[in-house]
Amino acid sequence: MYSFLSALLTPYTAISITFLIILKEFYFSRRTNAPKCPKLAFPIVGHAPYVQFKRFHRQLTEWGNNFKKTGIYQINIFGETSVVVSSYEAIKEVLITKSDELGGRAKLLRTSLTTRGGKDVAFDNFGHRFIQKKKLLMKSIKVHDQKNIELEQVTLDVLEDYSRRVLDKNEIIDFHEFSINLMFDIIMAILVGHRVNIHDQRLQELKESYATINKCFLNQKLAIYDLFPWLTYFYQSKEYKEMKQAIKNRDANLSSFLKEVREEQLGNILGEQGLYDKFLQEQRKQERDNKLDDDECFMLAMETILAGYTTSSVSIMMIFALLMKHPRVLNKLINEIETTMGFNEPINYLKKNNMPYLEATIWESLRFIRHVNPIPHSAMIDSTIQGYFIKKGTQIIINTRDLHHNEELWGDPSNFRPERFFREDGTLMAPDEGCRKYLFVFGGGRRVCPGKGLAQQRMFITIIYLLQRYKFEYVKDLNDENYIYNSNEWDFDIVLHPDQFFVKVSRR
Ligand code: HEM
């Protein structure tokens, strides 16, 4: 039996089957009311020869310029169809109106490997288990929960440590590297409930493994395995082996670190409680049939770190870059801090509602930078977007980058202007009001970012803490302004980010 099967599974049979599938897909899309393509597709490979992985975000915009009216088009790569949506109406339909039917995730080899087959939230398909994990995550990171207010102190402890070790030296620093380290340590501290030892070898290695895995997401040579996973049975490239090794190292280091922290905390009556403890506590409360397994809890911790530091580090770095370029906004912000919080008072997140200008500055920065695009969705059933037929399993790329800089909606999208989110009476717009309704920086609907509150709280605390104590100066000779302020020029791994950004820091 085995030899019969292996005789059938020769590379030639596999290639022939793939060829037939591609032909079927190609002709099927011709027969239906499918979205149009930006370019003529080649037989078999489709639009693959046009794709530049590192600059894919730019290419999506260029292609999208031909479909501004409908805000939807499709591309085909080796028979896999992806629909790209960029108008407000199409994005709203995908994220909100048809959230359930268009909120799936494609099962790809790379995401499966990094998440133990979708045991996390972000790459799991929509379904009962996904809902359970997402609920648990959201419940644990609710920012107004008493325990999370205590976690503010943990964030402040890390900030104080970085002040002493890095910022008080009055030096020029690479603010990109600084924000990655700061945000990584903050999210680790929140996860375990106390400041972590930055010299712990496991944490250094953990950070390196994350960086290697993130880079694998833009590696063209690895994308081929997503399209043809069966290739791994015949040939595993050097890059593929490196990715697998990095995943192994990440999991070994994180697991050893979390185990040690748990053992220490069990012996500690005060029991400093971090998010990971909360995941385990919630797990214990669950009924036996619905209990999340240990792998799922571990993947929640892994993803909280990943989603927490990659997104927020670029946000913090760029908020400061934008404030340096716009002294008018910086002065208004400093005035707001002075009148509501003071320069010597401890930071209190409960005062957030008295600081609308800071809130609007965070929204405007995320809109302006647009470094995080939603993870591609997938159609759970045959459906439609803006009347176009979308076949079950089609990938949907939601181009919020274009939405957030659409001139018709924003008027002056290239200007950095937090005031755009204020009503005439000086109060902040509601989520469904004015231009704020076009803002999808945290996604929306079923797949909305569960870390939205946590991220905003961290940014709020970090911005106030740093502005209360330091002045930041843009270093003209070491930075290329056209590169720093234009995310089109940046590279993509999990999010878009510049390589370096040099800033002179001094005490206020
Ligand atoms: C500035 C910071 C952040 C931004 C801009 C951001 C943005 C986003 C966006 C746009 C999505 C995709 C929604 C979709 O696929 O439709 C997302 C998903 C997600 N985010 Fe965040 N995020 C941030 C911080 C965080 C933090 C701190 C966490 C930690 C818990 C987190 C956890 C997640 C998870 C688990 C998902 C997947 C949700 C799902 O698939 O249902 N994010 N985020």
From TrEMBL:
GO molecular function: heme binding; iron ion binding; monooxygenase activity; oxidoreductase activity, acting on paired donors, with incorporation or reduction of molecular oxygen
Names of required cofactors: heme
UniProt xrefs under InterPro entries: Cyt_P450, Cyt_P450_CS, Cyt_P450_E_grp-I, Cyt_P450_sf
UniProt key word Oxidoreductase: yes
Binding site for heme: C449
UniProt keyword list: Heme, Iron, Membrane, Metal-binding, Monooxygenase, Oxidoreductase, Transmembrane, Transmembrane helix
PROSITE patterns: CYTOCHROME_P450 (PS00086)
Transmembrane portions of the chain: 298-323
Superkingdom of the organism of origin: Eukaryota
Pfam families: p450
Protein's UniProt keywords contain tRNA processing: no
Family statement drawn from the similarity comment of this UniProt entry: Belongs to the cytochrome P450 family.
Identification of the protein by name: DgyrCDS811
Species of origin: Dimorphilus gyrociliatus
